[in-house]
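Same chain as my last thread, 171 residues:
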Amino acid sequence: MGYPTRLLSEGERIDLELRPHWKALVFPVIVLLVSCGVAGFLLTVSPSPSKTSGEVSWIAIGVVALGVIAYFTVRPWLHWLFSNYVVTNRRLIIRLGFIHRVGRDLPLEKINDVSFRHDSLLDRMLGCGTLVVESAGEHGQVLLNDIPRVEETQREISTLISGDPAGAARG
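reply #2:
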């Protein structure tokens, strides 16, 4: 599910397509596994559904489990799936959201500085982090969290900003 090339201007090419690092999905997967395990355990110890009270308890367990899974697993997964960061030879494109969609384009010539930071030892081990993009526009600083290969991404954007075609070809 890449960025549609029909939305690019003439002569524009995609250099990087990113979405948040997979570590953003670890907690939702843990919640899914624990929810299924707890719901399964509760269903085995609750009365059989042939009894009236057993039927109600099974429905309640199912509704609570589905609610927890929807909020703590499906919602973060959709957020991850529909968060896209695209770097072209002319701009940085940010698209976030599934229902409430937000988009922002930063022309590369308006970007003053690109830096990164690792917020934890885990970020450093996984190679992900926060990309800090400073723009000359009215919004100033843009923080892009959980960017995979954050150092390479920062270097690629800096190379594109400087206009070094040899550096862009190496990346």
